[in-house]
Amino acid sequence: MTNKVMFIDDEPGVLDALTWMFMDEPYEFFSFQSPVQALEKLEDTEFAVVITDQRMPEMEGTALLEKIRHKWPDTVRMLITAYQELDIATTAINKSNVYHLIYKPWNETELKETVRRAVAHYETHSANHKPGPFIGNDIKDEICDLKNQKQKLEIKNRYLINRLAQSHKMETLGNLASGIAHDFKNILFIINGYLDLALLDPACSPEIQEKLNKALK
Predict the structure, then answer these.
(1) Which of 10, 50, 162, 183 has the highest CB neighbour count under 10 A?
(2) Beta bridge partner(s), residue 41
(3) What sign does the dihedral 147-148-149-155 (CA atoms) show?
(4) What is the per-residue burial (b if ≥16 Cβ within 10 Å, else e) of 121-157?
(5) Is the pTM of this model over 0.90?
(6) CA–CA distance from 52 to each of 130, 210, 215 (Å)?
(7) CA–CA separation, 8 and 30 (whole Å)
């Protein structure tokens, strides 16, 4: 069965760009401008990955992904936003449990690779919930051994999934922190530039120069 990926964004241009970008990928794509229509589609179609924009008139992306998390927990959820805001990231991580935060403008290569990993994550996780074939009573001992092994593997698998989820959370927070640091550095660069220019002013008194040097320090 071909894995299905859903894009949700109220801007048609963004949906067209995403659809065009993934034309060569082996997935079946659906795009919606309305979060409500997307939820209706999820009622009758199984999706591996849902990627939604944050700022939309009908519903914010974090609220939409929270609904999907509760009703379709196996579906991998990702959020697109143009705003590196801490409250959005916190809500996306804690309430929506997103797999990845995507910032506009995105890098095409990185986004494609992220979606591939998300689909692989869905395939691995959903496979653990599908029942196996029936086996007769003549091999009860073997079944018992297999059940014990399966139980151990499930425990280990849950542990690894939790570790992976924590890793994705830390990656998301790291991306957010680097973005904030980059923006803050830009602001400091401008301030330093003006301070340097002020020090070059011939009319600048020694007292003012001392204060400017302290500001630079």
Answers:
(1) 50
(2) none
(3) positive
(4) bbeebbeeeeeeeeeeeeeeeeeeeeeeeeeeeeeee
(5) no
(6) 27, 52, 44
(7) 9
Residue type at 32 in one-letter notation: F
129/82: higher pLDDT:
82
Please tell me the distance from the alpha carbon of residue 205 to that of residue 119, in angstroms, as a whole number.
Answer: 65
> Exposed, middle or buried by CB within 10 Å (0-12, 13-18, 19+), for 61?
buried
What single-letter amino acid sits at 215?
A
- 77-81, 182-186, 187-191, 197-201: least confidently modelled range: 182-186
Percent of the chain whose predicted confidence (pLDDT) is above 70: 88
* SS3 assignment, position 174: helix
- Helices and strands of the chain, counted as H and E runs: 7, 5
pLDDT digits (tens, 9 = 90+) for 86-101: 677 777 777 778 888 8
Asked if residue 6 has pLDDT above 70, the reply is: yes
**C-alpha to C-alpha distances, 200 to 190, 192, 214, nearest whole angstrom:** 16, 13, 15
